[in-house]
Amino acid sequence: MTRSDLRALFRSNDRELKAVDFFADRHGEWSTVTASLIRHTQRMNGSEADVEDLEAPRRNVLVFYGVGGIGKSTLSRTLVDHLADSEGHESDWPPLDPQVGRVVPVRVDLSRESGGDFESLMLALRLAAADLGQPMPTFDLAFQRYWERNHPGEPLDEYLRRRTWFSRFPGSRSLSGQMQSALSDAAQAVALPGTAGALVGQGLRSLVRALRERRHQVRSLAECQRLADLLEADPDLEALSYYSHLLAWDLSRVPEKRRATLVVMLDTFEDVGDRVHRDLERLIQRVVWLMPNALFVITGRNRLQWDDPKLEGQLDWAGPQFWPLLVGGAAEEPRQHTVGYLSAEDCETYLCERLTIAGRPLMDDRTRHMVTANSHGLPLYLDLAVMRFLDLYRRHGRAPEPHEFNLDFPALVARTFRDLSPNVRQVLRAVSLLDSFSIELAAAAAGLDHDAPALELVERPFVDTDPGAPWPYRVHELVREAVREADSISEDRWSEADWQRAAQRAFDALGRETSGDRVHLVAALRQGMRLARDYELDLGWLADAAFRYVDDFVWEPIELPALPSTGASDEVSGSPSEALATALSAIAQRQRRHRGHTAEQLRTVLESGRLPQPLIELPRYFLAECDRDLGNFERSLEGMQQVVDAGGRLAPTAARGLAHLARRVGRFPQVRDVAETLGAEGRRDRVLGDLWWTQGHIALACSSYAKSRDEALQLGQPGEAALSQACLAFAAAFQDRPRAAEQITRARELLSGVSIRWAEIQTQIAELVRDAGVAPDLPERAEEVATLAHEAGLTSSVAYIRFAACLHATVLGSPTPLTEARDQLGECVQGEEFAYLMELSHLMAGQEPPAELPRAQWLDDQNQVQARWTAIADDRRLEAAANRGE
Fold first, then answer.
1. CB-CB contact of 543 with 612 (8 Å)
2. How far apart are alpha carbons 323 and 300 in whole angstroms?
3. 161 CB contacts (<8 Å, ≥6 apart)?
4. What is the three-state SS of 543-554?
């Protein structure tokens, strides 16, 4: 399999030269797959094989791992093609051993760029199983319940049709029919009418009861011991991962003549987790464990760590007793293999095909043999050797002599290093300190006042280019690691003091890049904090960059790579840069996890005492914000006041935080007074918008929110603009439903480029308010949104959701639902906190609030507030009646 190698092709004027990017057929890897399949099928066909045995060690994982760019994804795709025997597939691999029998391959790209998720993985597995033409009844029953809960009103076949990724599976056309057939059979077995509709509520309870009693009508289903438990479980992602057990059980019941081995290719596995956050990896590992009759072929950059007992708690099954063949030194297949060490035959083929003239290899036999022997099968060595060969060929007009390639890999790097001019070597050393760089950064880090050496360096084959990155160039990782070692033997090598000075220059140069756009600010923060830690530099510009980073609510990930000796940890070490990195990482990640975990990390940072005084307010403010979201009112009030009293950069933000807290307890005159002191820096207009809607002044609230949004857009603050727009959508939803729909759409558009969990949920609450009194399924939808808010630790969002449900019941004029909605809202009321929402729930219904309820300090007379809110409810009641045609 070949294609033109543009990099080599455009390095020479020789029109007869043909350069191709050749992927050598990996016979060794194919032999490994064949051996793994033979051993796997032997185990599964043995008398002891039992998919319901959840304690036996697993031997169904084959791993290929290695550095980036060596063809792992191409290997994964080629394996699928060959196993499927695709029409027109070109390969000199031999066919599978007949004793393996039929296989059904399925490949899932787990890279972030592919946009896949865990649900897509489970669908891919089921679509592959559909190719057998046999029902998968237990899985289909559970999955259909999951689908109806998580995709209400969206038919599965339509979902598959809209997503072209699924169209390559033949089963995409028959899956929906197979599932409906399974549901119909189950419904008939328990004497219920219909199919899917009968297997919810009482229908589901009837089926579960029949399964537990092992009635003869469902005898075949009842043989699956855990089906009833899974049908009773809440159908969320956790439950979906356990449904893989049902799929394994169904596959084990396929008749012999239709049986096949499912081979699952999981590619780009390094994107599943970052060795710290393994939530998705845990779900995928669970699928692998629960499907012992499927062979999983995992490809990625890192060795799979499931055999490490220290991961217990992060993964369900961790240790050699669970995965004996993943342990280093295992001799039996399937096991873990390093990709990248090509066979001698593949190396020869690679070198013959890579550069040719008139159909003949440009590299002679002796040189090829020398390069092959010294490469030890390392593709990067071959690539560097080919580019060096081409450079020498172009420079001298002849093929280089074999002795010029009698080098091992470190020597090749050293030779490449020595071939550079002194200034270019100086630039290479300097940029080895950086993850990525520009010409300007390279020259500044090297201490040069001209760009020519940097321009020459980026033309070298070991420098990769990514035009979409903040800085487009990066030295290949293996070359970066080898530069220091090669430098120890070079005649103009750097001392430790030289490296220290270069680190300071690179750090200072990164600081000058932070005055540009946000992309460069974040990239500079990431690299700058690593340099500050590794070379014990003063924080300098990092302090200002950190405040600017938190200023706009965008929250790109900010994490400092762990030192090899320390490993990944949430603990704060003695370095101020690590303390700052921990704080920023926790602040950013609070958008993707529970606020309680963020609060714990920020307290740890504060208690460590490692941050310099000007930066203390950073974790202190966001800890106070987390305490507010978690309902720790007094703690939040104390923290916000400390930040205000310190008078630092976050003082206006903390003053706004005090206004939010005052609004929570219904002290609205105080909110108004604080808002007038905030100015644009303190988001005055958004605070006023928060105030006006509580008073029933919806038009004023919308106007204030719109002004805040427009001002943020003018200042280039997309996070603040998205946040204000989400609030605008919420306020507009109380009065103008068509306009609210437009505002909700715009909020989603603005939020697509940022990560603000509260605003995302606020937009969903706006949809609830818009549909209050109109949508019959609003209580169920409210529960789903409340679950999301609870998971994020957002108490205010839960309170607003309950208030929306009260509005819904008020418009309908139904006493019982209103009482139930108020009971749920009452769970959010803690003393004065959110008591004003409960008071409003009575006022808009024309009722007197309970005497024991703390009263809010309204800006107007309570009767005026009540008149505005009853008008809102009355208008919605008329609109709902019009929609019903009354």
1. yes
2. 18
3. 167, 172
4. HHHHHHHHCCCC
Average pLDDT, the chain: 83
How many other C-beta atoms lie within 10 A of the C-beta of residue 742?
12
What CA–CA distance (Å, rounded) separates 873 from 773? 9
Token pair 């092959």 is found at: 372
Q: Is 772 exposed, middle or buried (0-12, 13-18, 19+ CB in 10 A)?
A: buried
Residue-wise pLDDT for 566-589, tens only, equals: 444 444 556 788 888 888 888 877
- Bridging pattern class, strands 295-300 and 261-267: parallel
Other Cβ atoms within 10 Å of 549 Cβ, number: 23
Tokens 């990431």 label which residue?
Answer: 526
Structure tokens given for 123: 């669908």
**pLDDT top residue among 494 and 507:** 507
Task: Establish whether the linkage from the previous residue to 612 is cis, with ω within 30° of 0.
Answer: no
| Sequence-separated (6 or more) residues with CB below 8 Å from residue 848 | 842
Question: Are the C-beta atoms of residues 61 and 288 closer than 8 Å to each other?
Answer: yes
Contact 640, 658 (CB under 8 A): yes
Asked if omega into 95 is within 30° of 0 (cis), the reply is no
- For 686, residues 6+ apart whose C-beta sits below 8 A from its C-beta are 704, 705, 708, 720, 723, 724, 727
Question: Which neighbouring-strand residues pair with 296?
Answer: 61, 264
Chain position carrying tokens 């290949």: 476
Place of tokens 């899956």: 175
- Max distance between CA atoms of the chain, in angstroms, equals 99
Measured CA to CA, the distance from residue 63 to residue 328 in angstroms comes to 12
**Cα–Cα distance for residue pair 273/282, rounded to 1 Å:** 9
Cβ contact 1:81 at 8 Å: no
Contact 773, 812 (CB under 8 A): yes
Strand order across the beta sheet in which 360-361 lies: 2-4, 17-22, 355-357, 360-361
Distance CA 138, CA 143 (A): 9
Tokens of 208: 């579960």
3-state helix, strand, coil in the chain (%, to 5): 60, 5, 35
The DSSP bridge partners found for residue 759 are none
Spatial distance between the Cα atoms of 789 and 778, rounded to a whole number of angstroms = 16
Site of tokens 């992602």:
237
As a whole number of angstroms, the distance between CA 23 and CA 793 comes to: 50
DSSP letter string, 840-879: HHHHTTT-PPPTTSPPPB-SS-HHHHHHHHHHHHHHHHHH
pLDDT of residue 254: 92
**CB neighbours of residue 846 within 10 Å:** 13
**In 3D, which of 315, 310, 182 has the Cα closest to residue 247?**
182
pTM over 0.85: no
Q: What is the pLDDT of residue 282?
A: 94
SS3 letters across 156-214: HHHHHHHCHHHHHCHHHHCHHHHHHHHHHHHHHHCCCCCCHHHHCCHHHHHHHHHHHCC
Rounded Cα–Cα distance for residues 75 and 300 (Å): 11
Token pair 């309950």: residue:
802
Residue 567 backbone class (left: φ over 0; alpha: ψ -120 to 50; beta: rest): left
Phi/psi of residue 691, nearest 5 degrees = -75, -45
Query: Is residue 195 a contact partner of residue 187, using CB atoms and an 8 Å limit?
Result: yes
Sheet holding 61-65, edge to edge: 103-109, 261-267, 295-300, 61-65, 336-338
Alpha-carbon distance of 683 to 655, in angstroms, equals 10
Q: Whole-angstrom Cα distance, residue 867 to residue 844?
A: 8
pLDDT in tens, 10-23: 555 554 455 444 44
Pairing of strands 2-4, 17-22: antiparallel
pLDDT, residue 821, reads 93
For residues 773 and 807, is the Cβ–Cβ distance under 8 A? yes
DSSP letter, residue 470: S
Report the C-alpha gap between 192 and 183 in whole angstroms: 11
Which SS3 state, helix, strand or coil, does residue 757 take? helix
